[in-house]
Model the fold of this input.
Amino acid sequence: MKTKDTLPWQDTPAESERIVSAITRIASVLRSGTWQFATTEGLNPTQVDILEALRSRQTGVRLSWIAQHLGVTAASASDSIASLTAKGLIKKGRDSEDGRAVALRLTKSGQDLAAKISNSVGFAHEAVSGLPSSTQDALFKSLLALIGRLQQSDRFPEIRACVTCKYFAVNRHSDSETPHHCMLVDAPLSVSLLRLDCPEHDQAQTVVAVQNWRELESV
Done:
């Protein structure tokens, strides 16, 4: 119960709560923008997520990967894939690593539609790009740290991030602008160049990935 001696800010939620609330609200706005467009194309949310997941995976992925990546059941993923295949947006082929397995890829129409879906949240790209570069760098680094925390607690799906790649060397250089190193291209990396989805990603051992996340957070 409030009294006349209670100051307005004394009821302010903890900063962690406000951060989560802010992220949740931003995610809701992005979802709304994406689904609003998708509805006009006759797609449901899961189908939209599948198209976006396949967009940067030219070599194709298996159904089990899609289900795990999206956090849905194999049956749900299978139904959505069947619908997308019938619409001519997804095609099935042989997996490059296992000829007995089926790999899913986007058709040309699927690629075009996935690009349009991405453009449906262009307003968010404009908002972020309008921030000072120093703010963008700090925001990206903070989000990376949060993703790392969630991954270590098994609350975030595996992603093809630099930090979890066997070619990534954290804090290899003394230069504060480009402290990290990519051994695949043998080049230093700044935090702003770290990727969340790299097609050349090769998963590092779990213990190495965890150590990378922790060192990145401590900088």
